Every structure is written in C-alpha cells, then in structure tokens.
Inverse folding.
C-alpha cells in the first residue's frame, strides 16, 4: 500500500508521500512516489503515485520519454498551457498504460495494474492547483470545500486532517498537520512506511520551496511522534467526563 | 457498513456499536447490533455484529431458538460452562448459517453473507473475556497486548484508541475514549451512523452495569464532538513547529 496527501493552503501547496511498496508482507522495498518537474520561474509540477508500481513507473518514464535518446526527449507537460491540460495528459497516459497491460493479460489482468495519482503545481499567471486522477484517466480538482486529496491507505490519517485543516494556516503548520496524519497511519498500518518525502511549493515561487526526506531517525518526525501521543492524552483528559448517572440510571 | 468496538479494562468491559445498516446509499435503516443475555449474579454475555444483516439476525434468532414455541426455547450459551465454549457455539452457528446460504445460492453466493462478531462477557468464577469471531467460525481472544477488538469500518477510529488506551483507566474514561473513536469515524464515513449503543459491564457484577443509547441530540455526545475538535486543535498547536531551515536549506 501507500499513503500520499496533497493539500492546498492559501500560501501554497504541501505534499507528503511514504516510500513503502509491498507485494505481500515479505517483499517490501523503498521506492520514491513523488516526482517533480520544473521550469524555474515559469512552472512547477509534482505528481504522487499510488497503486501498481510497474504502472506508475511507466507513467513517469513515458512522461519523460525515456524510451528516446536523452537528447531527443521532450516532456509534454512542460509545454502544456494549463494545469488542467497537464492533468488531462497524465490521465490519458495512465489510462492507456493500464488498459494495455490489462488487455495483454486478458481475464487474469482484469482489475489489476490500477493506480491513482495526485498532481499538484502552478504555472505562471495562474493559481496553484491540485488534482486527483483515477485509473480511468478522469480526474477531480480540489476546491474550497475539499482542499486536500489522499490516495492509498487514507482512512487512519483522515480524521486529524478534517479536524486540523485551516486554509489560512502557515506552510510550516501544514507540514506539521501532515506529519501527524502520517504518524497516525504508520502507527496503525504496516504497509505504509518511512522514510517520508515532503515537499512545499510556495505560491508564486514556481519552484520547490522546501523538500526533505524524513527517515526514522529524523529529529522532527521523532519529536512529533512522541509529543503527539502526550498531546492526544492531554486533549483526551480535557474532555468532559462521562457519568453513569446522566440518564437517570 | 458498521462500527463496533469491545475493550477490556482492568475494571471491566466497555462496548459500543453504531446502528446504521445500508444497502447502497439510498437504503439506510437503524438496526440494533448489540445483544445481551444474562443470568443475574451468574453470567453476562453480549455480542456485537457486523456484516450481512440477514446472517447476523439469523445467528441471534437461532441462539434464542425463536423457531420454537416460547415455552420450549433454551439458549445454549446460557448453559455453556465457559466463555470459550460460548464463543465456540456462536462460531459454529455463524459458520453454518453462512455456509448454508452460500451453498443455496451457488456461484452467486460465494463471498456474500459473511459477518463478524465480537463476544464479551463474564461467567462467575472466571475472568471477563473478549473474543472476535471470523465468518469461518474460528476466533481470537483479547490479551494484554491486544486489549480491544473492532469490527466493520475500523480504520478511522483506530489511531485514537491505540494512543488513548490504558488498561487502568476508569470505565467512564473507557466510554469517553470510545465516544471519541466513534465521533472520528462518524465525521469521515457515511456508512456508520447514530444512534450509538453503549454498554458497560463492571468486573464481577455479572450484569449490565450501565447502558445508554446516544442519539444525535445526546448532550454528552454533542459535548464530546464539539470539544474534541477544539482539544485536537489545541493539541496540534502544542506540538513542536516545523522549520524550513532545519536541514540547512
């Protein structure tokens, strides 16, 4: 499994992904699931992937035209005029790769090879945008009502984002929120694993404003993981107490 | 879907279940998923059910021998010498009911009609016990390492139980913890719904020590739901802040 989150804040985009891939529980590896392309001062585009690893790697390789000689490669999404076009291109690629692999494997391939993708970025002259792509190639865009997308093992880490999100929060607080969400997920599910890739894209910077890989010995991750337990206990004890008398029994 | 949790504390058992059943999103109903049988001063046994409603209702009906005349009914689990025997009996019943229905429907029935059950209780002279039954009829028992079981839509509400559980906590705090876990789940998933059924079985009481149905306008549920949001935000802001400078960038 996988866990990736993309979040839109007033000040920019905050993205985080884990790096664990597993086929069963005895075949785990570390693979990067966050990929970035940028033209400094003009555009930045980052994708995060969940699902079949051969599929998602094929999407990234074909975007970069790695089948061609290095000198002849041309990345279509670096030419797309809008983020909407970028999402359309990647969606088409994703659907085609899945369909090809499924058809090649007939009945055995049905329902396999699927993947989901989060696309985040900004092109000069336009707003920062965030999309979630489905295996069918279609996609939805984040809005004021739904300002974040999760893919992969999404449930454990969802309640804290729902409760903690605030569009006006600082980018640093956005990182803090996602770190807590990932920590909750890691504590409950073996298929999501460290290290985590973090990326922050400040509005109108058109570049990676900050990126960092959090490993198990990362001091910030460790401090969140240990203090969140205490903070939650404190929060819990601050709640009103239940009384067995309340309903007259 | 469904959400039920059973938790063993030093002082007794705390159980909570939701009441929503749905077939699609446009066919929702309220059904009780918590059932209790007791012989005052001798034993108390409570089951909570998740999965196919016809299956779980059949289990409860057959336990109570509702196919017989009222005067001839005899509930086998009220005679079982140990909680282990109770779990074995109910497990056998569950497996047989599922198998019968699947066989009667051939290929179309495969994988349908399944259900899971949590069994909690205490028989005089023995410890309070908690079991989780699988559709295959086998079961596991809670231990010091794994002192709670969840069935149904378990993921959203799991991190807070992992973080908040303490075997020594009061039964009232156990209720508070489960209320928070259910609130997190309700906020994130439509297939789990109010009202909630709560039951507390104090150690060596051999009876229902407290039970309560929490509806949407229950003052305690409302106070937890609203103050948990604030408490979480406060906990979140008490955490160490992230700094973009930390890794020297």
């Amino acid at each position: 499994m996988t866990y990736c989150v993309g979040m839109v804040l007033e000040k920019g985009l905050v993205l985080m992904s884990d790096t664990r891939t597993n086929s069963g529980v005895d075949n785990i590896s570390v693979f990067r699931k966050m990929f970035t392309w940028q033209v400094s001062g003009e555009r930045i585009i980052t994708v995060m992937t969940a699902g079949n690893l051969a599929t998602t790697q094929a999407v990234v390789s074909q975007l970069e035209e790695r089948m061609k000689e290095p000198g002849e490669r041309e990345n279509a999404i670096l030419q797309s005029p809008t983020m909407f076009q970028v999402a359309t291109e990647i969606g088409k690629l994703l659907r085609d790769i899945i369909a090809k692999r499924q058809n090649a494997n007939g009945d055995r391939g049905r329902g396999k090879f699927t993947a989901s993708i989060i696309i985040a970025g900004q092109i000069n002259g336009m707003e920062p945008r965030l999309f979630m792509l489905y295996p069918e190639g279609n996609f939805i865009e984040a809005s004021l009502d739904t300002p974040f997308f999760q893919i992969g093992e999404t449930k454990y880490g969802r309640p804290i984002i729902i409760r903690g999100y605030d569009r006006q929060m600082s980018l640093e607080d956005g990182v803090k929120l996602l770190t807590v969400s990932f920590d909750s997920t890691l504590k409950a599910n073996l298929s999501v694993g460290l290290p985590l890739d973090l990326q922050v894209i400040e509005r109108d910077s058109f570049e990676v404003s900050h990126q960092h890989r959090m490993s198990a010995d990362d001091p910030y991750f460790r401090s969140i993981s240990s203090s969140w337990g205490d903070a939650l206990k404190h929060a819990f004890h601050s709640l009103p107490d239940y009384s067995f008398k309340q309903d007259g029994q």
About this structure: The radius of gyration of chain B is 20 Å. Residues 3-235 of chain B form a domain with the Glutamine Phosphoribosylpyrophosphate, subunit 1, domain 1 fold (CATH 3.60.20.10). Chain B has six helices and twelve strands. Chain B touches chain A through 49 residues (CB under 8 Å).
